[in-house]
Design a protein that fits this description.
The complex is a heterodimer of chains A (about 220) and B (about 110).
Chain A lengths: L3 H15 L4 H17 L4 H11 L2 H11 L5 H27 E3 L6 E3 L3 H21 L2 H4 L6 H23 L5 H32 L10
Antiparallel strand pairs in A: 1-2
Helix pairs in contact in A: 1-2, 1-4, 5-6, 5-9, 6-9, 8-9
Chain B lengths: L11 H9 L4 E2 H11 L11 H10 L3 E7 L5 E7 L1 H29 L1
Antiparallel strand pairs in B: 1-3, 2-3
The chains are: A mainly alpha (about 220), B alpha+beta (about 110).
């Protein structure tokens, strides 16, 4: 047989074992656990079964403590730095590859005239994507390669943007094919940046938590 | 049917994401719903759900809010964030792929 005191003892132990530093978070955890046991019923048999079925309070407390561990600002900076460095390297490589031209005479290579502008646009795109990922703005965070219609829309949207900017700047219209191919490079940078963000999140979650595996069933 | 609990290791997160992809739920409701839908196959230790929920909330996959239920009692409801919805979709695809591969292997071995 069990009563409310046994439930309170169990909750006390879980909260204590969690070693959560923040008093507000501890109070909220306690409230949530109390709410759980209020749901299971009020008879002694129901409470006893619920306590037995709840699991080892020590293990649960430690897992809750792990879940509440905070990543320090240095870890967050390192994660952002990793993403920005990887995405930027990729953008430079892609823009170099697509704008590299053979110089007259064929003796050497040179980057095309629009290289710096393309690179600046890619850098801006990466910054927008990283900010959107941090703020969880769905429209920028989706994996474009899994949504062909969205990918096509982004491609056309970027190409249109490019044509408009070019027209405003030089009062001439760039060839649509050129705008589309330049935008295709930015679409690749977009998909790769989102993939890098997702993989970096997973990597950091694995490295910086003491209990990386999911809780047991 | 008796089953090896090892099979269920790592499935709690997938289960939670799949259930919350339908609607917001509180911890006890998630446990009950998983048991009901699996015809009592997933008899989770109820306490294991809370660390998973808190971990996923911290990872930005879930958001939690206290709301009064129909009975008048306040409960902490969890719902998926956009990031959580993407994760739910990704996990569902992975699970279906693994499941199809297992069926193909087991079916071939059996046939």
């Amino acid at each position: 047989m069990a009563d409310r005191n046994d439930v309170a003892t169990l909750i006390d132990r879980i909260v204590r074992e969690s070693k959560i530093v923040d008093a507000g978070e501890r109070a909220e955890l306690r409230r949530e656990l109390e709410s759980h046991f209020a749901d299971v019923g009020s008879t002694e048999d129901a409470l006893r079964a619920a306590i037995e079925h709840f699991g080892d309070p020590e293990v649960i407390g430690v897992e809750l403590g792990d879940a509440h561990q905070r990543n320090g600002p240095l870890t967050r900076l390192l994660r952002l730095g990793t993403v920005l460095a990887a995405s930027s390297c990729l953008a430079i490589l892609l823009q170099l590859t697509t704008t590299l031209r053979v110089r007259e005479g064929g003796a050497a290579f040179a980057v095309g005239a629009g290289f710096i502008r393309s690179l600046a646009f890619s850098a801006m795109l990466i910054l927008v994507l990283v900010a959107a990922w941090e703020l969880d703005i769905e429209v920028f965070c989706a994996r474009l390669e899994r949504h062909p219609v969205r990918m096509a829309s982004v491609l056309v949207g970027l190409a249109t943007l490019m044509v408009v900017f070019h027209a405003l700047e030089s009062s001439t219209m760039p060839p649509p094919g050129l705008a589309l191919s330049a935008s295709a490079v930015d679409v690749v940078i977009w998909t790769c940046t989102v993939a890098i963000l997702a993989r970096t999140d997973r990597l950091f979650a694995r490295v910086f938590t003491s209990r990386p595996s999911p809780p047991r069933a | 049917m008796d089953y090896d609990r090892e099979f269920l290791t790592g499935t709690v997160g997938v289960l939670i994401l799949a259930l919350l992809n339908e609607r917001a739920m509180y911890g006890y409701e998630i446990v009950q719903e998983a048991e009901r839908r699996s015809a009592q196959l997933f008899l989770m230790k109820e306490g294991t759900v809370y660390p998973a929920l808190h971990q996923m909330e911290r990872a930005g996959l879930l958001r939690a809010a206290w709301r009064d239920s129909e009975s008048g009692r306040a409960r902490k409801y969890y719902s998926l964030t956009p990031k959580g919805r993407r994760q739910a979709e990704s996990k569902r695809r992975q699970w279906e792929s693994i499941s199809a591969a297992m069926r193909a292997i087991l079916g071939a071995a059996h046939g």
